[in-house]
Amino acid sequence: MREITIEAKIENLDEVLGFVDGQLEELECPMKAQMQIDVAVEEIFVNIASYAYAPGVGDAVVRFESSQDPASVTITFIDSGVPYDPVQKDDPDVTLSAEERGIGGLGIYMAKKAMDDMKYVYRDGQNILSISKSI
Amino acid sequence: MLNINKKLEDKTLTVALEGRLDTTTAPQLEAELKSALPEVTSLVMDFEKLEYISSAGLRVLLSAQKTMNKQGEMKLIHVNDVINEIFEVTGFSDILNIE
User: Fold this and answer.
1) How many CB pairs under 8 A join A and B?
2) Deepest of B9, B17, B71, B77, by most Cβ within 10 A of its Cβ?
3) CATH no. for residue A94?
4) CA–CA dist A49, A57 (Å, integer)
């Protein structure tokens, strides 16, 4: 298990993705799965950076765990911001035309679709969101 | 990291993207398109060297599609499998003209 603690702001996205990609590369994760995991990590981290502590700032922990047989990874995001459960969020209507489409709501939906599983728990004043995927 | 190569011929603008279209880089593309699109009736986005797209990138594409619906047409060419799958799960494959 490895983890980083980082200030939850959008400027730090590249560092978070660098941490996760480094771990995935050590596991020789296939490129397609890596891209899908990156999408999920980006959407979740940007969400925390945008909303968890607004208008202030705070830290996020990004924890990386892997297991074998079958090979899978679990990435956990922990923040102490406002309670928010993205698992319960309604999916956007993806059948709408360009004119009818709003610009919000897609990110978490993409994260859910890119991963095999997403779990949320609020404990001791912390949002704990875990995403998992077979690789 | 995103490289944006633009080529304007008559009123057709070809924009070739290389790298990642994400939260960090999407504003660059948005700014480039904002300044270029008023002159354009046909927009071609070449994704041959685009490796990655997130929802921030999708938002820029949606906005470009809406603009081009009013003044001409837009199409995407050379889209790779990973990005195509993202377009499919988000319903963007029905909104965008993908060749």
Assistant:
1) 62
2) B17
3) 3.30.565.10
4) 8
In contact, A77 and A129? CB cutoff 8 Å: yes
How many angstroms away from the CA of B7 is the closest CA of chain A? 25
Residues 4 through 33 of chain B touching chain A, CB cutoff 8 Å: 22-24
- Which residue among B23, B63, B95 places its CB closest to the CB of A42? B23
- Signed CA dihedral, A103, B14, B37, B66: sign only: negative
Q: How far apart are CA A15 and CA A9, in angstroms?
A: 11
Predicted pLDDT at A92: 87
pLDDT tens-place string over residues A71-97: 999 999 999 999 999 998 888 888 888
Domain count, chain B: 1
Q: For the segment B65-75, what is each residue's pLDDT rounded down to a tens digit?
A: 999 999 999 99
Task: Please list every residue in chain B whose beta carbon sits closer than 8 Å to the beta carbon of residue A96.
Answer: 91
Full domain range(s) for residue B43: 2-95
ipTM of the complex: 0.75
